[in-house]
Specification:
32% strand; alpha/beta; single chain; two-stranded antiparallel ribbon; hydrolase activity
């Protein structure tokens, strides 16, 4: 079986808090049996003609100051609505600078309290992404979100913080494409957690419509 292709977009040169170094190796290893992963920090990869060869786009972008151009925004929207897959990991939601992209992803990042050990539970056990996923605990930043009211989302997981449960992962359809957001991914150790590795792989396969 020929491997499919994924584009991993992040920041090597000037990350604010989450460099792609190290994380790129973990993600490539998690997905190695299913797809080859091309890593880039060039937002021009989001132009329609550059996204076309890929079955899946993964955002680990970390610069809230860098707002996508109208052409890059249109490229990503066209890619997903035409049937492409988008997997957004942790800080990858910072592409939210354009309201169209925030709606595509289903939410905006607001803030996060201090990092610490968080417990995660499954809220949609019948979703294909969650097959065989057990509750797990991981050291993470407890992100808070402002959800787009017009986007129909399936909440996949929640995390517990200060006695309350908060959204931690969700999926949605956008046109002919699929979008998944996973909150964990603060640093390289997050991607070494077996439970999260399995979740990431299954999210990637679902978003990219991979068989099996």
């Amino acid at each position: 079986m020929e491997k499919r292709k994924a584009l991993l977009l992040g920041d090597y040169s000037y990350p604010e808090f989450h460099p792609l170094q190290g994380v790129d190796e973990e993600i490539s290893h998690i997905l190695q049996d299913w797809m080859t992963v091309q890593c880039s920090e060039n937002r021009k990869m989001l132009l329609k003609e550059n996204l076309t060869p890929f079955d899946l786009c993964i955002s680990y972008c970390d610069s809230r100051k860098e707002v996508l151009s109208p052409q890059q925004t249109a490229g990503l929207l066209s890619y997903v609505s035409g049937g492409g897959g988008l997997l957004v990991l942790h800080n990858g939601i910072t592409l939210q600078g354009r309201y169209e992209i925030a709606q595509l992803m289903g939410a905006r990042f607001l803030r996060h309290p201090a990092a610490g050990p968080l417990s995660f539970k499954v809220t949609a056990p019948d979703h294909p992404i969650m097959e065989g996923i057990e509750p797990f605990e991981i050291q993470e930043e407890p992100y808070r979100f402002d959800f787009d009211p017009f986007t129909e989302k399936t909440l996949l997981m929640e995390y517990e913080h200060e006695g309350e449960w908060w959204p931690a992962a969700w999926s949605l359809s956008y046109g002919l494409g699929r979008v998944v957001y996973l909150m964990p991914g603060h640093n390289q150790p997050s991607f070494q957690h077996e439970g999260y590795r399995k979740l990431l792989l299954q999210a990637a396969k679902w978003a990219g419509r991979f068989p099996g």
